Amino acid sequence: MSVISEKSSSTTTTIVVVGGGVAGAEVVRGLSSRLNPEKYRLVLVTARPYYTFLPASLRLLANSDSSLSTVFMSFDQIFGRFPGELKIGTVAYIEENRDALYSRGGFVILESGERLGYDVLVVCTGSTWSGHLAFPNDESGCKQHVESWRNKIKTAKDIG
Q1: Transmembrane segments in this chain: where (predicted)?
Q2: Global pTM value
Q3: 129-159 residues labelled b (16+ CB within 10 A) or e (exposed)
Q4: 30: which DSSP letter?
Q5: What is the residue-wise DSSP string for 114-126?
Q6: Which residues are within 8 A (CB) of 128 and not within 5 positions of it... i.e. 6 or more apart?
Q7: For the chain (length 160 residues), average pLDDT per consecutive 10?
Q8: pLDDT of residue 26
Q9: Are 17 and 27 in contact (CB under 8 A)?
Q10: Is 85 exposed, middle or buried (CB count within 10 Å of its CB: 0-12, 13-18, 19+)?
Q11: In the chain, what are the domain boundaries?
């Protein structure tokens, strides 16, 4: 089990944002442009290694000339100049802080067993989609999903 931060410093506030969808990305962008890196640590936890822009996904699935990059975008610039941390993983559970020395916060426990300490937790887990919008979390799964749906759309006899 790996521990990212039990509580790195009493002068640093750790903010963990869970979810890299629309809401989580907006929260991270907003905070990273306003926070002082000497006082705050900002961590984004997301199951996917890329941002998924769902409005463009319909065109991607229907048009074989559409590039995957119009829907799946890297998180590499999400923090701007802020020294934020991106953690790819799935949250297993959240553990309340029971240490009397610290009055707030807790731990985000990932399925890998990794523990992320936080002072402030922002949960932006979003929605789960089915069918054509149920993109897998890994890149190869997404490519297969897109090809499968492109084939279904191409060979469809009707839309009903």
Answers
A1: none
A2: 0.87
A3: eeebeebeeeeeebeebbeebbeeeeeeeee
A4: H
A5: -EEEESEEEE---
A6: 134
A7: 50 96 97 97 97 94 94 94 97 88 86 96 94 94 96 89
A8: 97
A9: yes
A10: middle
A11: 3-127
